Amino acid sequence: MLGICRGRRKFLAASLTVLFVPAITWIYLFAGSFEDGKPVSLSPLESQPHSPRYTASSQRERESLEVRMREVEEENRVLRKQLSLAQSRSPSHHRGNHSKTYSMEEGTGDSESLRAGIVAGNSSECGQQPAVEKCETIHVAIVCAGYNASRDVVTLVKSVLFHRRNPLHFHLIADAIAKQILATLFQTWMVPAVRIDFYDADELKSEVSWIPNKHYSGIYGLMKLVLTKTLPSNLERVIVLDTDITFATDIAELWAVFHKFKGQQVLGLVENQSDWYLGNLWKNHRPWPALGRGYNTGVILLLLDKLRKMKWEQMWRLTAERELMSMLSTSLADQDIFNAVIKQNPFLVYQLPCFWNVQLSDHTRSEQCYRDVSDLKVIHWNSPKKLRVKNKHVEFFRNLYLTFLEYDGNLLRRELFGCPSEADVNSENLQKQLSELDEDDLCYEFRRERFTVHRTHLYFLHYEYEPAADNTDVTLVAQLSMDRLQMLEAICKHWEGPISLALYLSDAEAQQFLRYAQGSEVLMSRHNVGYHIVYKEGQFYPVNLLRNVAMKHISTPYMFLSDIDFLPMYGLYEYLRKSVIQLDLANTKKALIVPAFETLRYRLSFPKSKAELLSMLDMGTLFTFRYHVWTKGHAPTNFAKWRTATTPYRVEWEADFEPYVVVRKDCPEYDRRFVGFGWNKVAHIMELDAQEYEFTVLPNAYMIHMPHAPSFDITKFRSNKQYRICLKTLKEEFQQDMSRHYGFAALKYLTAENNS
């Protein structure tokens, strides 16, 4: 019906245009052809140069009027052609509104039409659709479980945030994994006018675990059935979305459809666009009962208050129990049960136009949901093949999806002007800290970075870890950016234990990393590597923030604080676990030093023993780390003693000491004020010494630094005088803070710095 109204409006507009534009044009031309109340001829024969009224300016005006007149005549011709085409199409539009194919027109609330499987328009669709109030909160519920689904949710949320103009309240039914990931993500995303509430999916398992389900979504694919019981009792309506949804319009348009519900309509659904429920996909195909083609539950509008009054819980349970006696299990999870209920109670459903759920699975009729790009509202990747699905326009849909997948999420932190936001303690504290900084300070950008909140996505890939029975396990901790990805496979081959990595990437780079990892047999065979994405923001590489993120999310009692450019010796993981016991690291404050070496060769025959390493040192194939650039950084390790040592030995802290150490997980964090190049590890080792950690060198451990191009930050340090001045200022401030915090014991750091 809406299509008919639109067609009539276009027909009327075109008719009025054709009638009035020529009239107005000729009035304009006629009025313009008078000067001093007398007519001025437009004919070139009557406009002679010798005429006293002839001037160059009046000639140009006449020529421009003639050109404009021809343009208007051409516009009228085009309008008449469009009008004739619109008239010829009008009857077919009217017939299409009553066909059984998928229509783009508005949904129906007519239960008789639903029983017949007819897509028809509401009787009053010519009226203006009720608008959503400017600051009205839109509620969205999503069931999310696991690592992969958490990534999918981010893309869905980006597409919603990109188009939205209203406050949003996301209700996330999540397992422990998804909650940890998404809680951190939204806390660090800090999007204004967005509220997040979590509901424990694991507690809901008992509500649906009695239903056998063959669908790949598993038990979580049934949890939309219990939303009336799970969500707050005062929540009246909610939009429920699958994680594989992409929005191409403002979600407020969908929220406004609630106003169209009539009578006992409590469910807003789009008809299923495949033949699944028709039961003709293969021989002996026996789907659950459904009304016609059935309905897809990837997008649902739920009137929760009415559903509760109708005793929805009892309704779907009785239906499921009855059907399971013959069907034995569900094939499409909650969708089968929703459809069985609707089959018995068709008055419950308001049929949404199919552009609200364009289903991109194989062999669907989704192409009939849109005639143009502007018709698209919601895209649903509801095939296990996801982006590899067969569809005539799949390239367009894939590109739209990839746009949001790689879109910079920081750009979505925009305010909704005119809408009051709930007080956010984190945001208020951040603003207070930033306001205390002096923007005229030449080191302002350095100081500001300390307080920058970087959006963080924990466990970007699947992660599994089984705790060691002897409680001696050690996690290798490191950080990297896109230009060091090539080191990952080598490190995984050298270190078989758990690894925690913080990666500093843009949204687009995160997807490149995902493709790289998924294409690597080495990386995909390792499930004990935690990849934590810290998204780029600002001009500095936040090296110590990255280290802190990687440190915070380890699952072992001990950690080996390394850098991505180092390859640990083969067998170091097991050696460190034995050293932890031998040196009683559980009950003493020790930092076990792994001596660092380096090679200038990109192709290195890695030494398999200490004896082989010493031989390579003597031949000049290996060197002690940074001996020719920054000797002080590792000199206290005492490499001369290490050559012959057979037992661990203690060394004392010295100025600028920055070894790579194994410590308990409760050691202090790195200081965030140090970014980019310079003093980031030195400050951490200094604080370990201030806390009376004992530095012990391991006699049979080593690691080797592999060559690489200079980083951008070290280039800035070397070329930018202001960079070096600010680093010196930050060092002095750090030392002053150490003195205030640790008192008299910290004075030696000031003395050592002055003497170095």
TrEMBL record:
<comment type="similarity">
    <text>In the C-terminal section; belongs to the glycosyltransferase 49 family.</text>
</comment>
<keyword id="KW-0808">Transferase</keyword>
<comment type="similarity">
    <text>In the N-terminal section; belongs to the glycosyltransferase 8 family.</text>
</comment>
<keyword id="KW-0735">Signal-anchor</keyword>
<keyword id="KW-0333">Golgi apparatus</keyword>
<feature type="compositionally biased region" description="Basic and acidic residues">
    <location>
        <begin position="59"/>
        <end position="69"/>
    </location>
</feature>
<dbReference type="InterPro" id="IPR051292">
    <property type="entry name" value="Xyl/GlcA_transferase"/>
</dbReference>
<dbReference type="InterPro" id="IPR002495">
    <property type="entry name" value="Glyco_trans_8"/>
</dbReference>
<dbReference type="GO" id="GO:0000139">
    <property type="term" value="C:Golgi membrane"/>
</dbReference>
<dbReference type="Pfam" id="PF01501">
    <property type="entry name" value="Glyco_transf_8"/>
</dbReference>
<feature type="compositionally biased region" description="Polar residues">
    <location>
        <begin position="44"/>
        <end position="58"/>
    </location>
</feature>
<feature type="transmembrane region" description="Helical">
    <location>
        <begin position="12"/>
        <end position="31"/>
    </location>
</feature>
<keyword id="KW-0511">Multifunctional enzyme</keyword>
<keyword id="KW-0812">Transmembrane</keyword>
<keyword id="KW-0328">Glycosyltransferase</keyword>
<protein>
    <submittedName>
        <fullName>LARG1 glucuronyltransferase</fullName>
    </submittedName>
</protein>
<comment type="pathway">
    <text>Protein modification; protein glycosylation.</text>
</comment>
<dbReference type="InterPro" id="IPR029044">
    <property type="entry name" value="Nucleotide-diphossugar_trans"/>
</dbReference>
<dbReference type="GO" id="GO:0042285">
    <property type="term" value="F:xylosyltransferase activity"/>
</dbReference>
<keyword id="KW-0325">Glycoprotein</keyword>
<keyword id="KW-0472">Membrane</keyword>
<feature type="region of interest" description="Disordered">
    <location>
        <begin position="83"/>
        <end position="109"/>
    </location>
</feature>
<feature type="region of interest" description="Disordered">
    <location>
        <begin position="42"/>
        <end position="69"/>
    </location>
</feature>
<dbReference type="GO" id="GO:0035269">
    <property type="term" value="P:protein O-linked glycosylation via mannose"/>
</dbReference>
<keyword id="KW-1133">Transmembrane helix</keyword>
<dbReference type="Pfam" id="PF13896">
    <property type="entry name" value="Glyco_transf_49"/>
</dbReference>
<dbReference type="GO" id="GO:0015020">
    <property type="term" value="F:glucuronosyltransferase activity"/>
</dbReference>
